[in-house]
## 1
Amino acid sequence: MAAMARRIWLIFAQATTLALAALFVVLTFKPHWVADLGSGPAALDSGELGLKDGGAPIAGHGFRDAAARAMPAVVYIFTTQKVAVPNHPLLNDPVFRKFFRDSPEQEPAAGLGSGVIVSDRGYVLTNHHVIQGAEQIEVGLADGRKAKAVLVGSDPETDLAVLRISLSKLPVIAFGRPSEARVGDTVLAIGNPFGVGQTVTQGIISALGRSRLGINTYENFIQTDAAINPGNSGGALVDTQGHLLGINTAIYTRSGGNQGIGFAIPADTARHVMESLVTKGKVSRGYIGVEPRDAPEGDGSLIAGVLRNGPADVAGIQPGDIVVAVNQKSIRNMTELMQSVASMSPGSEASFKVLRQGQSSELTVKIAERPSAQKR
């Protein structure tokens, strides 16, 4: 009896060992055979195991809504222009020249940038340097449509330009409120970096009111660490609602690529420039005919030079004077003086508080119109 029991136990042990070995082989080489066994009616669902499916992503997660609102209004801008090529003695040979259909002194060059549709009438904001010197401008929409663009006008001093296209059912971005933006706010940069296609990057506002960078004549930049690269110029900087906060225009870089320091022109500045270009064909700015510098000590703007018979000269402002206030508003540096004067209407009068040899005086200056800048 004991021998029989021992024999049965050995058979059971051997069978179990063989079964485990077979299961090991199947799990190693054909794991889907085992998975298929659970697909029948008797398989446990995730609830019975205490598991929880995440399901579809929640609508509005992250910044997808902001991106979805703004992206359709951000466009690609393609430009072509003639670029002079070095002359060569062979080009003076008529036999050699006949092989050229076009003038050999010029060859076409292509440029690429971004822009933002801001009106259902077809107005597109971009940078002046994106379309500078262009003979032809074409705008490509995110939905695949393309259209020839007409240059309405440009303003080199703020590096802004306005184009117009003729297409129906245009996506339009809503203007935001840059004056209410604060350092630390989340922003998205949208454009076409390096021509790879529409791209969205995310960061924060790093600083406000950046100036004296030597980029434009009038500077009041929003600084951001959202990645901005070549090709992003003219694109949109938007808030978390997808509203336009600025026009991306420049980066600080030593490598040619993004290093976390990008600059955008505030949307309210861009809007003012656009309205002036559309309605007047130019941007009118105040002018008093001085050469300002930062004061060597303390606040104010040192007047280094005065245009003879110009508005400041007529009002009695002299070289060496320090302007400390305009219309009772304090002036801290030359940038604030330039911006304050530029914002005034030609023909109006303004009160200037100046310091001369330690003595303060008030002078009334009649504002003239700033001469048009040469397009860079």
Note: The chain has three domains: 72-164, 178-280, 286-369.
## 2
Amino acid sequence: MSSLVESLRQLRRVNADAVLTIAHNRPWTRAVVDDRSTSAACGLLAAGLAPGDRVAIHLTNGIDVVVAYYACFKAGLIAVPIDTRLRAPEIDYILRHSAARAYIGQLEVFADADAASRHIALRYLIGDNARPQRSFSELVATHGDDALLPAVPIDAPAILLYPSDMTVRPKGVTHTHGSLQAEQCQKLFGVPLLEG
């Protein structure tokens, strides 16, 4: 079984210009998603993250969420999705319980995450006026090189999921790169299952 990262690379080798996904009424090719996620992965590692570190992803649907997940997968980081409907107390719990070392968010949902994420040094925002936080767009725009990325085993943790129903304090459910190949897991976090 190949990882999601290797599946994307295989698809690119077959047809780099084929559309992988459509976001904001724009087609995104396999090559563009692969390049952008490689750049973001290299940037996250260069910022001081290491394989196994957790990265909170607090984004609405769009190309950036796909790029952010693949960046984490390529860098050996563990993605921690945060439902955009959650409020500050729930966000704070997830960030602290997961021990997230980085946060990737969107200006539209950042108000509830701002105070909860202040203890996190690496905060990246998407959208205009991302300052004083770092810009995820700038991270993606830097040059990345697959040779700088670690080898990530198929049984390495890839994602830590917290259920949206926060009536009890969930401990989170970890999926590996291998388990994410299952279609059911794909539906949980919105990244499309890659098929030829």
Note: DSSP finds seven helices and nine strands in the chain.
## 3
Amino acid sequence: MTVQVGSVEPAIDATAVARPTLRGHISIARPDHWVKNVFVLPGLVVALALDPTKTGWNLILPCILGMISVCLVSSSNYTINEMLDAPFDRQHPTKCRRPIPAGRVSIPLGYVQWILLMVVGMALGLMVNLPFAITMGVLWVMGCVYNIPPLRTKDIPYVDVLSESVNNPLRMLAGWYIVRPDVVVPSSALLSYWMVGCYFMAMKRLAEYVEIGDPARAAAYRKSFAFYTRERLLVSIMFYGSAAMLFFGAFIMRYRLELVLSFPLVALVMANYLSLSFKRDSAVQAPEKLYREPTLMASVIACALVMGVLMLVNLPWVNNVFSPGSAAFERLAGVDVNGPAEDGP
């Protein structure tokens, strides 16, 4: 059996000759995607910065268990994604070579793997604390909502990006709960993190759409592409990026004004990422390969280092300049800091 994809060479359906392998089953769990769980770290950093008394050796074990839990639950979601996407992957120029379309995975064992990864991940999550375990449960449920019919939100325009990107704030929440399970994370930080995830995910959609190059083929691969166009995706990217920065601004004004100094670097990261989405065979389509982009990595590392320092170091002059009510702020706003002169008797 062959599948013709435009001008691409016919992809051989190897299910008749290939056999399930351990490597195939490991591959659909996508351990190479665990790098995405670095998004847990900002939750840890923010929680520690807002309450430094939580720092201590007693955090080491919860951090280790928590990271393993996040990785396993994420792999459970990746597994069901691979299982249910196999018919559509056969319409993609490169994904048609993935383990399931190529016959290197046992379908019944694949479903067992999906559940087993979730169970072990949740058990480790409970060893951290209950709020963390609940967060892992929500992360797993969102994977089901995104992939499994009849909801399968990945097929619905805009909802696909919003529902997939909710994993970002959930990862941040996981990092926060490792440190502070008794306190609610600031909503402005979660919303900003969500919109940043939407910004990245919408660019992944744009890169995929541009790479396929044919609207009919694109719609056969991903149902939401029957609605999306380059223009619609670019407009949504603008919306998500703007919303992310507005919520980030709300967070820093309330909790950590020093972070305003990181804005130029944050903007640089976002601009570099957008630029990559227009490249042929862009790493934006496979975020686990972004480390191969030196310009992006340099800007990300610089931004992370600066933000880390700004979360921990107090700079009174920043508050004097930007804080509403300060003399410097009122002078910039044209307010007479001495107040109106009193009338004479």
Note: The longest strand covers residues 8-12.
## 4
Amino acid sequence: MNILVCRTDKLGDFITALPTMYVLKHHNPKNRIIACVSPLNKTLAESCDFIDEVIVDYAQSIWSFASEFRSLNIDASITLFSNTRVALAQFLARIPTRIAPATKIAQIFYTHRVKQRRSEVKMAEFEYNLELTKTLFPDIDLEYKKPLLNFEDAKNIYDIFCINNDIEKEVIAFHVGFGGSSDANWNLDEYEELIHAVLIENKYQVVLTFGPDEKDLYEEMQGRFMAYNVVFYFSQESILYFAKLISNFKLFVSTSTGTYHLASLVGTPTMTFFADTLFASSKRWKGVGDEKLQQNFMIPSQKERKKELFSEIKKVLYSLQ
């Protein structure tokens, strides 16, 4: 069976789709899994051995998009997060079975509309995605391997990174940026304190990571840590390269954004900060990796409680020494 799986939004959202593609492939190895993704996620999708083909939504005309679907002889599609463009293209391509959550006006273009009520957050985003596969295969096994991605050349990439940056200790990385569906984060002064909690004993190498659109933030943090042995990584390579690099880190500290999901995907221990709301909580956005490797903290809006949590997190970082 040729199965199209669509998730054309941001990095973290796409990563929540990967367990779904994995279980579809492993339910029957003869299934051909076709992933429809945004340009940002193309190289990561192509690295997955459980994905057979990748289609990129480049915002091409709706007719070109539908024609591309039609050429692949797709038997069924599962759209994990729908929009009118993706829904209409599938409708025009005449895909026989089209499955999606029963939300938004786009649902009229699907043959199977599944009521999930994700706003109630009865499970995590990736678990809602997995549930949709049962519409196609009621007996499907929803278990998947963790970490979901492993790379043969990841150690070589890390070794070269260490040589180039004179790193001789295990790495604790901080990603202080803010993006995606993240609704809460520490400010830069607070991050500076957290980073110093690691630097004080000089046991680990601190690496600060920045996305390609975070140049100002990169320069700001360079100014703050000019006198310290901190490595600054400004990403100019692909997401796939970054995934391989961080898979070797001791710990990845960040808010709930795409890089956190990437770290969990490749099996890196994470310390992650979430908003104290159900919609943006760790209950909804926990990583796809092993939960035992995830330390999740909800940042309260109330000042005193927030201060107490900050002190607790500093103690956790001190305890790593």
Note: The radius of gyration is 21 Å.
